[in-house]
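Dock S-adenosyl-L-homocysteine; give full complex structure.
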Amino acid sequence: MHRFFVEPEAIARNTVTIIGPQARQMEEVLRLRPGDSIIVLDNSGWQYEVEIADLDEARATGTVKGKSLVTTEPQTKITVFQGLLKGERFEYVLQKGTELGVVGFVPVVCERCVVGQIREASSGKWQRWQRIVAEAAEQSERGKLPMLRPAVMFQQACENVRGFSVLAWEREQAVGLRNTLRHRLQQAPKGKKPGRLFSLNLFVGPEGGFTPEEVQRARGYGIVPVSLGPRILRADTATIVATTAIMYELGDLGD
Ligand code: SAH
């Protein structure tokens, strides 16, 4: 069944009204017809099975037939702080990260970022990025849309970050991602059960990497620099590999 994230206002009691591009997609691309069923999500973690009552290219209405909680969201909420990348590489991170279950993306302006990328992050790409995230979330049957946050400066990102945070650094030799996670799982903070991690922030650099000063600064804020092994990965690869490895270690890719 096709899935659509909609604004919460689109669902009023038992009636769903979808307007704009989604209605057009339903009518013209997917060729849905009255009587067909779809899944509608309002980003609350619930999903609604909806039978289409009426449909044209501008507007679709339907009736809610059932409601259930979505159970596909990962236990550990990973937020990716991504040094700005060239357009299509950042889009790759958004798409694959969403499929994996990342809950938030924060583009980060680093010392080795390129001016063009900064302009892109602050301009017209926003809607396109949002669409990539939504499509990936629908396709991968997520229950919630990952948050796409506005770009921030590296310093600001370090200052505002809360909770357990790691930074992928290719020059780190002593501290690996896996041991860092295992250590953290054993040493739960006061009041928290060991063996669980509710959230994690993952910092990955731009193509040119973090500067040594940036790594030092991050350390000062309690962010742990970690290695992903002896080979240098491209930035977009590093993000997806680190996310996968963290989820695997924490059991979020199945047992
Ligand atoms: N140009 C840099 C490499 C940057 S790789 C250089 O040659 O030194 C881009 C980003 O991917 C890095 O900032 C880091 O966050 C991540 N990364 C790539 N390979 C990594 C590894 N082996 N361990 C940890 N992080 C890595």
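Observed: Residues 76 and 198 are 5 Å apart (CA to CA).
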